[in-house]
Amino acid sequence: MKRIIKQASLVILAIAMFCQCQPKQEGSHAKIVKVNGNKVIDCNVSEITDTIDLPLSKIVKNCSVIPLETNAESLFKRVYHLSVSKSYIAVHSRGQMPIKLFSRQGKFIRDIGKIGRGPGEFTSLYDIQLDEEANRIYLSPFARANKLIVYSLDSENLPDIPLVYQQTKFKANVQDDVVTILSMPFKMKEGKCIPVAYQQTTKGKLIKEVETPEHLEINPRNSKGQFIGFNNEISSTHNADAFDSYTMTWGKAGYDTLYHYNTSKNQMIPKFVATFSEKKQGSWAYEWKSHYWAFVFGEKYRGSKILVDKKTLKSDFFHLKNDFYGGIEMNSIYVSNNQMFICPMTAMNFKEQCKEVLKDKDLDSAIREKLERINKSLKEDDNDVLFIGEMI
Question: Which end of the chain is more exposed for a tag (fewer CB within 10 A), N or C?
Answer without folding.
Answer: C
